[in-house]
């Protein structure tokens, strides 16, 4: 019986995370594959319906814009978990902590002495053209020299199953609420599977985040007032902002709820009068934070916020300016950062990257546009990219012009054979490409916290590589299954 | 509680109640209409005036007939006082304060909003009655979620403060339906209908049964006015709503200036001597109560919503 649902399942040319190239379950997933296979099509359809209902009734949504205005869509979720054996995850988690430590050291250095430039490891011209470098932050020393308190790094696996870092999101990475909610949904949908496996928990994230935020408080002797700063209900991640505030017991505020008084402290306007705010987990981009310093037309920020931050009267996470390392050109240098600041070899690899700013690499890119993926340095959400093998001659012409006009703004990478995971579609199980966004929380004088797995995003359309929820992507629960204990996986 | 959230909750309460009360008003008027002999000239424009919407209406329509007035008051999203627009506003306010209210409350209002956004044809009397009943039922369900699902905190007090104040306001507006004299002025022949009109006013506020139980006299103008303005036990009476508002205020921080304004409104309501009021004087009194309620709402905004540094 157990074979039926899986019969004919194959993912030729790609590393499938559950079924190997001979059609056999991988060791850590064998029990899971058997149990799911035994369920039968009707039962699976029922479980899927149960998941849809749970998502609807739990109100898990994301916001999209359309011609009809702003709408909340139910979070797209595939019921089949994506499984990573703990033995494979642990080095990845270590590599992420190492990477974020180096990124934080780089940001701190860039806003201080810029030793790395003086030592010739990082080119000054990259910094000169960085759109996320904030001169206003030079000379600041946030607590513990931590700038990127929350990092969401995107990982992919190639044809051999090897993990690579695709990008680091150091500005306002989102998705962690869905990581936790996905687990709640799959517990409802597959309760019996949780009895049969030791699956690493993910729901400690809000507590870890709150601890890390509280540790930044300028008033360490009292319970700090922590706020989550949201751009408001029209932001696509508003669900997550509400969720984080609720889970941490923090106040959810908008820029207009706050003001900075003559004492350079930040206060919330409440019905009880002004209430001092010590730590702000801001989900508003740098340039909108403070109209006195950045964009004067920002309606989302609070005048004086940077003044209060510089005076040390409020902590901002992530620190303004942390995005200087969230740039696809800077990305290419991260392995060098690890060697330079930590004196270590990188545990996790970058995807090989050509920098169009370098003459020889640019020539290579221009000559191979049909096989490469070209990305602008500062876009997110999968926008503004050229996927060479799927592009038209016209699109390649267009990108060649863009690259020549502004080489600093483009990088290129090989088209990766992204790994696949079985996904429930109308005809049964089918391979779909996945990535993984773990979250790394850094705080002064304590080891970084890395989520157990992360948010798995899946390109639901056959053959598609685009995992963004705004563009037809979905998600899966991510299980780090303990394969290190003899009875870890029953 | 953030001032902005307090603002959102207060207005969510007001808009939910306004949608319900508008539906009741429309129902009351329609029911009354059914009782009238054919061919009477029913003054639809007065209904627009009661809702304080004549400027906007007159700018868009030359003729105030049943179809235009009903669509304007119920489903015209361009008219900020319409039921559909009230629901848009209630929904937007709740959306921002979603983490402070039971999810079921949000869902009820969201669903009703979506239903009204499809603009059911309220010009048809059958459809109209169905639509108004649905609005009233949803609002009452919302009351249940608020009462049974919300902790008695500042969020609850702000939301129910908005409900209470809007209810007091709308009770006086529904009374206006009667005093504004919707009927053509040929007194003798229409007197039975005038009585029917008072009954429809009570029914529209779901007050008929309670009135019967507690007043026990023939339905007459003065006793209905007295009941709806000053009855201490009926939850829809202006007196009761203001007392409820006072209870909420007493739990909110430093309500002093707001309480002063509340006391002013209460004195006006308490001073009603329905037996002494001619139609015109009653109408003036109702206007005065509405103005004091508006001042009360403003006092709340000054004290709690703009409360930047105070």
TrEMBL record, chain A:
InterPro entries: ATP-dep_Glu-Cys_Ligase-2 (IPR051680), CP_ATPgrasp_2 (IPR025841), UCP005522 (IPR016450). Pfam families: CP_ATPgrasp_2. Residues 467-490 are annotated as: Disordered. It comes from the Bacteria. It comes from Salinisphaera hydrothermalis (strain C41B8). PANTHER family: BLR5612 PROTEIN (PTHR34595), SLL1039 PROTEIN (PTHR34595:SF7). This is Circularly permuted ATP-grasp type 2 domain-containing protein. Residues 81-459 form the Circularly permuted ATP-grasp type domain.
Automatic annotation (TrEMBL), chain B:
Pfam families: Alpha-E. Residues 1-305 form the DUF403 domain. It comes from the Bacteria. This is DUF403 domain-containing protein. The lineage of its organism: Bacteria, Pseudomonadati, Pseudomonadota, Gammaproteobacteria, Salinisphaerales. It comes from Salinisphaera hydrothermalis (strain C41B8).
């Amino acid at each position: 019986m157990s074979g039926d649902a899986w019969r004919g399942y194959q993912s030729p040319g790609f590393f499938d995370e559950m079924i190997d190239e001979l059609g056999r379950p991988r060791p850590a997933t064998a029990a899971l594959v058997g149990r799911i296979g035994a369920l039968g099509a009707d039962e699976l359809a029922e479980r899927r319906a149960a998941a849809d209902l749970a998502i609807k009734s739990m109100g898990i949504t994301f916001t999209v814009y359309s011609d009809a205005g702003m709408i909340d869509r139910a979070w797209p979720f595939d019921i089949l978990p994506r499984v990573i054996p703990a033995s494979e995850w642990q080095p990845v988690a270590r590599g992420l902590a190492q990477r974020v430590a180096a990124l934080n050291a780089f940001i701190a250095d860039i806003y201080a002495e810029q030793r790395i430039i003086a030592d010739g490891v990082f080119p000054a011209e990259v910094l000169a053209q960085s759109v996320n470098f904030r001169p206003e932050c030079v000379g600041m020393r946030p607590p513990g020299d931590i700038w990127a308190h929350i990092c969401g790094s995107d990982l992919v696996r190639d044809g051999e199953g090897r993990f690579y870092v695709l990008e680091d999101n150091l500005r306002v990475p989102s998705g962690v609420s869905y990581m936790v909610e996905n687990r709640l949904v799959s517990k409802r949908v597959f309760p019996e599977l949780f009895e049969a496996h030791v699956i690493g928990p993910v729901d400690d994230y809000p507590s870890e985040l709150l601890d890390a935020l509280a540790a930044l408080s300028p008033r360490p002797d009292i319970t700090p007032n922590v706020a989550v700063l949201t751009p408001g209900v029209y932001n696509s991640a508003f669900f997550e902002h509400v969720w984080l505030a609720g889970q941490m017991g923090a106040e959810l505020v908008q820029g207009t709820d706050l003001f900075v008084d003559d004492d350079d402290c930040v206060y919330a306007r409440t019905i009880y009068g002004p209430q001092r705010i010590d730590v702000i987990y801001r989900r508003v981009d740098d340039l909108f934070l403070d109209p006195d310093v950045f964009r004067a037309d920002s309606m989302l920020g609070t005048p004086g916020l940077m003044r209060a931050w510089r005076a040390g009267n409020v902590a901002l996470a992530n620190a303004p300016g942390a995005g200087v390392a969230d740039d696809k050109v800077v990305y290419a240098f991260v392995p060098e950062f690890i060697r330079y600041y930590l004196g270590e070899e990188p545990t996790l690899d970058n995807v090989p990257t050509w920098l169009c700013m370098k003459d020889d690499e640019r020539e290579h890119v221009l000559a191979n546009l049909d096989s490469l993926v070209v990305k602008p340095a500062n876009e997110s959400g999968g926008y503004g990219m050229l996927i060479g093998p799927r592009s038209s001659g016209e699109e390649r012409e267009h990108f060649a012009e863009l690259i020549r006009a502004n080489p600093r703004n483009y990088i290129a990478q090989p088209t990766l054979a992204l790994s696949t995971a079985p996904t429930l579609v109308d005809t049964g199980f089918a391979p779909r490409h996945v990535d993984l966004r773990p979250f790394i929380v850094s705080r002064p004088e304590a080891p970084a916290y890395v989520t157990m797995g992360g948010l798995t995003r899946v390109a639901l359309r056959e053959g598609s590589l685009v995992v963004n929820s705004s563009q037809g992507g979905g998600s899966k629960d991510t299980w780090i299954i303990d394969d290190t204990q003899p009875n870890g996986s029953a | 509680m953030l001032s902005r959230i307090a603002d959102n909750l207060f207005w969510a309460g007001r808009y939910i109640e306004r949608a319900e009360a508008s539906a009741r008003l429309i129902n009351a008027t329609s029911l009354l209409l059914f009782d009238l002999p054919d061919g009477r000239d029913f003054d639809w424009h007065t209904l627009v005036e009661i809702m304080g919407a004549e400027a906007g209406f007159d700018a868009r329509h030359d003729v105030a007939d049943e179809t235009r007035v009903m669509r304007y008051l119920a489903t015209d999203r361009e008219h900020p006082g319409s039921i559909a627009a009230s629901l848009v506003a209630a929904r937007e306010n709740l959306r921002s304060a979603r983490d402070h209210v039971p999810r079921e409350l949000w869902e009820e209002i969201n669903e009703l909003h979506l239903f009204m956004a499809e603009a059911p044809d309220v010009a048809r009397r059958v459809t109209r009655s169905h639509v108004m009943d649905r609005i009233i039922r949803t609002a009452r369900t919302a009351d249940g979620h608020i009462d049974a699902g919300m902790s008695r905190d500042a969020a609850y007090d702000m939301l129910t403060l908005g409900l209470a104040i809007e209810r007091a306001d709308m009770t006086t507006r529904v009374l206006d339906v009667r005093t504004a004299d919707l009927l053509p002025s040929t007194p003798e022949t229409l007197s039975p209908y005038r009585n029917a009109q008072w009954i429809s006013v009570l029914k529209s506020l779901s007050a008929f049964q309670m009135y019967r139980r507690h007043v026990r006299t023939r339905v007459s103008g003065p006793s209905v006015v007295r009941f709806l303005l000053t009855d201490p036990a009926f939850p829809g009476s202006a007196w009761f709503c203001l007392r409820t508002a006072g209870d909420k205020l007493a739990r909110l921080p430093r309500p002093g200036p707001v309480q002063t304004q509340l006391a002013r409104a209460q004195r006006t309501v308490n001073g009603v001597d329905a037996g002494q009021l001619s139609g015109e004087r009653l109408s003036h009194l109702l206007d005065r109560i509405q103005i004091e309620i508006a001042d009360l709402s403003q006092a709340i905004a000054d004290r709690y919503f703009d409360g930047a540094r105070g």
